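sry for the spam today, last one i promise. struct tokens for design, 748 residues
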């Protein structure tokens, strides 16, 4: 390692690969291998390797921008920009009430920023109208996990368990492209004699690694899971002792599954009965097995039920809460996990507490120094919030998100953003959404700041600052501090991330996602700590001054940590085959310090009675099925060289060279019917709009389906087409399936 290298983590996906940043000879920083971080052991994908390009002033914003009288975004001072935002928020609140102020966060924000943003919305603005783009990413898995296990942590076990299990069913994840360093866990699984089953409508790079590839029609994963469970029962492969000892609700779930005969499931999904039987055999024969889901089954209007069906399969075969086994979700965004735990979701308070729970409100209000009754209730989910812009919600403060590209029915969302009285965006670059704003604030990113993230394993990590940000750039925490001050809340929004984290520890204490035993020092010394990690946070003087006159005198309030209950009990309490892995760096932790919880549910689930819940679910069609007018299915996803809305990666030359633009992947038979050759421009038309991109012809996709990556704006914007139909529980939009028709486009 370079003598002055700073160990930190990648700015992009939920794997949060470790990397070192060393001073580059010509200025800036170079990425240097960091082999000591166990998740990626030094490996990085092209996005991580090229991330220093984002630090260049030629790429990033370095001055606040305000919209001039002529309608142009022009440079301005920080004071002018902040004054304008505070004035607009204040005016909207005075004229229309607190809920006229909307707040939209992002799954890339650090835990500290996500926490501060939720607090800012609720005690400075007093608004219920806050949600974030993580709602688009994993909320169905979160809802399914909560229903079954009483807790949502993406993976309830570390990635290192994957190579030691016997079989993994990977549902709707193309991790060979979305998080390439994670592929080695599955390669090692197969080298160890384990089997990999991949469920995906496309023969992706990940599916090519599989022992068995099941390619269901988009939107039918629910039927597939039910058909597999039917066969598990029919073939006598259930674990009756486990079901009896550790679960509730089997009779109803069993009855629902038995209505899904294999032949019926074959008709719905296109997966043959012999393939279904082979999958059941591969999954049930080993002692240990896992199901891992990702966006494929989750981004559907029945995503929660689909996740429940896969969890039911795991429960019926006795997998969850046993070593090297269980169900997990592969979270996507960099801090998608932590971002959903600390209060930027419409229905949550820090520590994964519920906003509707009186005890949760009391605890958090006490930490914040406000009256619990002054906290607003749950607000709208992400798409519903975007849909309400310019109507009930008149102003929007948006941090680290680019919904003009990433939201479903994006042209409509863009129109709603344009209809706002006022839009303020905090971002690193001038994204397509920032370009619509009245004020844009250039904020620090990744290597320019310190903060924590929580990766897809529930491992809390410390990202360290490696370089000084450019002059003119300030942190999101600074923005909230200054806006709070201008809106009459002078204290409670520190700009030091460690100070924010200390408060977050106290706010999360006793909650499901308990971080109270985690400190920056521990994170630095232990290479991350898995939550729940109860501890004894040092009481801080309470500093928030509520704008609500009923709020208590902050300076006089005191706080005591909550009792630690369920999270500790459900944590890692049994030795596995590698005990040193279950207590990370235990020798470094002082006696009495909680070691963190790499593996959950080994003794009990996080439900009131400690038992997991089956949820009885049945198949239903997608919100839009093909018809005469729209006869083809569209599914969307990512490519290896771009990330999410592309706001960052589309500014990196090497990544653009590898993935320069959108395309429409289609089967040769479909292309022939359309009369399109490879590279021809084709139009994809849905009920919401039209997108045009070159055809990419591949035998790796079903003939009834086309695929488009969603990283680009403009005429090739895939999300112009996608359907905002929402899952009734998670409020997740149906990104993964909608009905379209194809048209040839005459080219000049
Ligand atoms: Fe690792 Fe994801 Fe970053 Fe690639 S984008 S280096 S997989 S964290």
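last one done:
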């Amino acid at each position: 390692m370079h003598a002055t290298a700073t160990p930190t983590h990648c700015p992009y996906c939920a794997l949060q690969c470790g990397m070192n940043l060393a001073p580059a000879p010509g200025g800036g920083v170079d990425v240097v291998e960091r082999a000591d971080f166990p998740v990626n052991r030094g490996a990085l994908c092209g996005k991580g390797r090229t991330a220093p390009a984002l630090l260049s002033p030629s790429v990033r914003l370095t001055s606040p921008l305000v919209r001039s009288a002529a309608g142009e975004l022009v440079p301005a001072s920080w004071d002018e920009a902040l004054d304008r935002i505070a004035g607009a928020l204040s005016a909207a609140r005075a004229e229309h009430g607190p809920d006229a102020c909307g707040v939209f966060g992002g799954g890339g924000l650090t835990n500290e920023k996500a926490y501060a943003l939720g607090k800012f919305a609720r005690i400075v603005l007093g608004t219920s109208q806050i949600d974030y783009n993580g709602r688009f990413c994993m909320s169905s898995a979160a809802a399914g996990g909560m229903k079954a296990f009483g807790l949502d942590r993406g993976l309830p076990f570390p990635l290192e368990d994957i190579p030691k299990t016997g079989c993994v069913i990977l549902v709707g994840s193309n991790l060979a492209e979305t998080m390439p360093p994670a592929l080695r866990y599955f390669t090692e699984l197969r080298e160890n004699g384990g089997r990999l089953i991949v469920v995906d409508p496309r023969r992706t790079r990940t599916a090519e690694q599989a022992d068995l590839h099941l390619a269901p029609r988009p939107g039918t994963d629910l039927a597939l899971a039910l058909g597999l469970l039917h066969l598990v029962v029919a073939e006598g492969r259930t674990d009756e002792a486990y079901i009896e000892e550790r679960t509730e609700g089997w009779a109803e779930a069993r009855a629902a599954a038995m209505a899904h005969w294999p032949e019926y499931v074959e008709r719905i999904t296109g997966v043959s009965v012999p393939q279904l039987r082979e999958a059941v055999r591969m999954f049930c024969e080993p002692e240990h097995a896992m199901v891992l889901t990702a966006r494929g089954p989750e981004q559907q209007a029945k995503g929660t039920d689909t996740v429940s069906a896969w969890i039911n399969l795991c429960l019926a075969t006795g997998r969850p809460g046993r070593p090297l086994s269980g169900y997990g979700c592969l979270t996507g965004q960099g801090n998608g996990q932590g971002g959903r735990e600390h209060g930027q979701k419409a229905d949550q308070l820090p520590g994964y507490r519920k906003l509707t729970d009186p005890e949760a409100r009391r605890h958090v209000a006490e930490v914040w120094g406000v009256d619990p009754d002054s906290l607003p209730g749950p607000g709208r989910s992400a798409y519903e919030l975007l849909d309400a812009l310019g109507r009930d919600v008149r102003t929007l403060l948006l941090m680290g998100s680019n919904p003009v590209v990433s939201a479903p029915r994006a042209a409509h969302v863009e129109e709603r953003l344009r209809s706002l009285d006022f839009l303020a965006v905090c971002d690193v670059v001038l994204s397509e959404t920032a370009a619509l704003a009245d004020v844009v604030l250039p904020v620090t990113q990744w290597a320019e700041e310190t903060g924590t993230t929580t990766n897809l394993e529930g491992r809390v990590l410390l990202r360290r600052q490696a370089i000084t940000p450019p002059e003119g750039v300030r942190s999101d925490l600074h923005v909230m501090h200054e806006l709070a001050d201008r809106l009459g809340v002078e204290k409670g929004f520190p700009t030091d991330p460690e100070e924010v984290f200390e408060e977050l520890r106290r706010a999360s204490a006793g909650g499901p996602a308990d971080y109270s035993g985690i400190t920056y020092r521990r994170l630095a010394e232990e290479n991350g700590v898995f939550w729940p990690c109860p501890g004894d946070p040092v009481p801080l003087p309470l500093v928030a001054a509520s704008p609500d006159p009923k709020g208590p005198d902050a300076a006089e309030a005191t706080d005591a940590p909550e009792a630690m209950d369920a999270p500790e009990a459900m944590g890692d309490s049994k030795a596995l085959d590698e005990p040193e892995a279950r207590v990370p760096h235990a020798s470094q932790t002082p006696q009495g310090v909680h070691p963190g919880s790499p593996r959950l549910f080994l003794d009990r689930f996080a439900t009131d009675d400690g038992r997991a819940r089956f949820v009885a679910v049945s198949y239903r069609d997608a919100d839009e099925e093909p018809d005469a007018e729209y006869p083809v299915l569209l599914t969307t996803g990512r490519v290896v060289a771009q990330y999410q809305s592309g706001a960052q990666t589309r500014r990196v030359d090497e990544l653009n060279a590898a993935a320069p633009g959108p395309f429409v992947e289609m089967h040769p038979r479909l292309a022939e019917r359309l009369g399109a050759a490879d590279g021809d421009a084709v139009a994809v038309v849905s009920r919401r709009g039209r997108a045009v991109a070159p055809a990419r012809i591949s035998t790796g996709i079903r003939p009834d389906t086309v695929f488009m990556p969603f990283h680009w704006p403009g005429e090739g914007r895939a999300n112009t087409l996608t359907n905002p139909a929402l899952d009734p529980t998670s409020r997740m939009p149906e990104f993964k399936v909608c009905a379209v028709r194809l048209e040839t486009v005459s080219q000049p």
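The chain has four domains: 6-55, 65-136+335-551, 140-330, 632-744. ok im logging off now
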